[in-house]
Amino acid sequence: MNRLLRVPLQIKILGLVISLLLIVIGLLTWMFAYRESEEDVEQAEDLAMQTAKTLSYMPVIQDSFKNEEPVGDLSAVTEQIRDQVDASAVLIENRDGQIFSFVGQSIGNGDPADRYRALVFGSNNLIHTGDGDEEVLKGIVPVMIRYDNYKKVEGTVTVEFDMKTIRNKIAYEIRTMLALSGGVLILGVFGSLFLARSIRRDTLGLEPYQISALFRERNAVLESVREGILAIDTQGVITMMNQSARELLDIDEKIEGKFVTDVISSQTMSEMLASSLHNSNIELQYKKKTMIVNAQPIIENNQKAGTVFSFRDRTEIKQMVDALSEVQQYSQDLRAQTHEFKNKLHVLLGLLQLHKYDKAIAFLTEESDLQEYHSTIFFQSILDEKVQAILLGKIAKASEKKIDFQIDGESSLSPLPGFIGLSPLIVILGNLIDNAFEAVMDQKIKVVSFFVTDIGSDIIFEIADNGKGISEEEEARILLKGISSKGDHRGYGLANVEEELSQLGGTIEWDSKKDKGTVFTVILPKSHTKGE
Question: Which residues cross the membrane (predicted)?
Fold first, then answer.
């Protein structure tokens, strides 16, 4: 069965067309032959009777019977009539069987009984005599002569038609019909070949079973990818949408056949629809979601035949960026930590080489006290490992930059709830602490302090610096993405902080005084009630 289904389309169409044409031609030929044979015989019978009647009423024949002998031009008139109707023979006889006129060639044998009804009853008689090629159709009518007060049958007119001739005519007509049918069959064959080749061109040379296989594979691929796929035609009507696109766009109903602008109302989408160029990594806001959209026009014969859109949730991209940022942050912190310890080891080595043992001991004691202080805070007050890792990295970075990074001894923090992951903390705390470091770089005494507490239903982080503060102009646009007084390609840190806080249901506040510094306060709820 599968092998039959894999027959090329051209052979399928050709076989179907030829089969249908043969059936139709066969039926039509049979009907034509049957009707033609019936009609031709009926026409021959009617013609035989009408010709015989016409002859019986002709004056030359009437005069011949009245005079009881043939008139001189009787045979000529009879021959002319026979030629006109293409009869085999015409026989005119009186009651006694005397032949007044006989033209043509009779095939059958004359039988006096054939004339009985015409002579006795004066009725017309139509008979078939003989068999096969000898069969003859005879139309026999009486010749009625009017006398003074009565009419009398004086003879008969017999018109004969050769049935073989009639059958040959029918056969010729059937052959003509078959020849025309053969021409139609040939046209059908060429038409089916043209149709099959036209369909193959439209299907790029693929057979139907190949198209169905590709269609199944295409559906499987579309449903397997996590990226949303949406296809539209030149009119902007949706022709295809995979499950991932339905989930990203929050669509449950069947939307194939609808205009995409009725489903996704967006200026960005309208611009991409009108464009014949490839668009990539375009942000689209839809139902409080931020998605990255790519648009690939379908070009056919240098004309736009549609567009394919792909949607990606920006959250996934953001997670990848956060992961990269996390690795980068660890790398920088480790480098800073390594560099700082190398510097301290060099100082210690120099003191030992100079035999400054007291200073070396004092230096070690100071570092030991500082590490003990940090350990006390980290392992007794700040118990969350994620925050500990971030602060250890920042301590090393601050030491490298000669910044006094102070962790408030009153800080206290229990392990954070599970919904507050490491990546959001790196974005929030990392950006705020780095911004504080940059703010104090121009100060003679560089001080940045960190405080955290989780008393109550919220977690509160405070990062303070003694920098020059935030101007009113900067404060008005501090959370806008891509806008910063620090130069080009800056201004994303605080915008990313606010975005992470909105996902966690938190808020950010700040208090800044000119030349006295700035304090940023982050408030995170212990229960995840927003941004879900």
Answer: 12-33, 177-196
